[in-house]
Prior knowledge:
By secondary structure, the protein is an alpha/beta fold.
Amino acid sequence: MFSFSRESEKRGKEIVRNLYYFPENQMLDCNQYIIEDPDTKELALFDTGNGISLNGLFKGMKQLNLDPINISKVFLTHEHVDHTLGLYPLMEFFREKPPEILAYGETAKILREGDISRIFPGNLGIKPSMFGVEIIPLKVTDLERMKEIEVFSEFKFEIHYTPGHSLGSISYYEPTKKILIPGDLVFQAELRYNIGSFGRYDFPGGSLETLKKSIEYVSKLNVLTLLPGHMNIVEENAGQHIALAYKTIQTLHY
Ligand SMILES: [Zn+2]
């Protein structure tokens, strides 16, 4: 059975100047990242968690002097429940002046249509009401035609389409700072055992073959800092974790 906590604070930390990491702290949630504009105090949020964890995120943000009311942009890595469900309470929190939501292709389409079956993939045995959330159509900016997005002038992310875990999965790559936000494409490897880690490919729209290609693709980027959707982040030499993910996934056959 899943257990969720509305109150547990997400303890964040600044990992690169003006970029903060808030680790997942409950079932079916995700890591979240926030970039602050040092001049205007505006905030960009990467992934929204499961919705129940939103209070905990807000608490954690306040500890770091980040005011949730200043969130002006929400970037999504893909359409799944643990990354997007927080959008609905977040929009309710803002009402008057909601932040801009940005997502790629299929993810944008699914959120615009409020397609529950795609937000809740497969047979996870969960539904929106368990999170106290109602899925409604949202206004979403599609990143599909954008090669690059500027986040408060200091961060310029390239948008790379990296499907395989889901059809709407993308990776955000900052080439100057060598930061990769890959959603559920690749995770921290088990270096001791020489085993790489990557996202599931058995949900609808997932594909092992496509996941392999996407991992091969990001393995060619120069990555120092890996900020994945789940588990630990990697703050140095992240390239070797991605290389291991690619090595490990090549041993799987379909
Ligand atoms: Zn996912």
